[in-house]
């Protein structure tokens, strides 16, 4: 696993409220490898994928969100009034590139109404949603 440069992440995501700060602990921005070497090409691919997500964040979160997530026991429905509002307030807690197939994994959450829980998402290298599930 390689943590990504927080300043570079911040340059890409800007002041977007849809992303967790790259300066938060633990770091949620990284590349995962098994036995592969992390090359400059993989690092560049990471930046390209993060830029794409930052430009299309609302659409990608809507794609991963399922209205039934609102009914999950870990969602405090006293603090969020609908599944639409929940979707609009989700934040990217982590953004991960898997070198083996260039897929992108994300955890979506909001500590105000999902404390300790998250939506696990995986997109293919060309941004087709593979799965999303709430934990």
Model description:
The chain is an alpha+beta fold and 135 residues long. The protein is built from four helices and six strands; from the N terminus they run βαβαααββββ. The protein has helices at 6-13, 40-55, 57-64, 83-88, and strands spanning 2-3, 29-32, 91-98, 103-109, 119-123, 129-134. It has a six-stranded mixed β-sheet with strand order 1-2-3-4-5-6, covered by helices on one side. It is globular and about 45 Å long.
Structural class: alpha+beta
State the end-to-end distance. 23 Å
Uncertain ranges: none
- Assign a percent range to the helix content: 25-40%
Biggest β-sheet: count, sense, barrel? 6 strands, mixed
SSE succession: EHEHHHEEEE
Mean pLDDT: 95
Count of discrete alpha- or pi-helical segments spanning 4 or more residues = 4
Per DSSP E runs of 2 or more residues, the count of β-strands stands at: 6
Which key terms come to mind for this protein?
135 residues, alpha+beta, 24% strand, single chain, 4 helices, globular
In summary, what is this structure?
With 135 residues, the chain is of the alpha+beta class. It has four helices and six strands, in the order E-H-E-H-H-H-E-E-E-E. Strand 5 and strand 6 (129-134) form a beta hairpin.
Topology (SSEs and partners):
Elements lengths: L1 E2 L2 H8 L15 E4 L7 H16 L1 H8 L18 H6 L2 E8 L4 E7 L9 E5 L5 E6 L1
Parallel strand pairs: 2-3
Antiparallel strand pairs: 1-2, 3-4, 4-5, 5-6
């Amino acid at each position: 696993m390689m943590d990504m440069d927080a300043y570079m992440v911040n340059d890409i995501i800007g002041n977007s409220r849809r992303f967790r700060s790259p300066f938060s602990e633990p770091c949620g921005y990284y590349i995962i490898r098994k036995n592969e070497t992390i090359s400059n090409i993989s690092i560049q691919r990471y930046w390209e994928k993060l830029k794409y997500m930052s430009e299309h964040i609302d659409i990608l979160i809507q794609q991963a969100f399922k209205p039934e997530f609102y009914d999950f026991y870990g969602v405090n429905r006293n603090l969020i009034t609908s599944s639409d509002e929940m979707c609009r307030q989700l934040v990217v807690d982590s953004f991960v590139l898997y070198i083996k197939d260039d897929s992108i994994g994300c955890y979506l959450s909001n500590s105000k109404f999902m404390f300790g829980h998250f939506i696990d998402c995986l997109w293919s290298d060309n941004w087709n949603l593979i799965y999303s599930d709430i934990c």
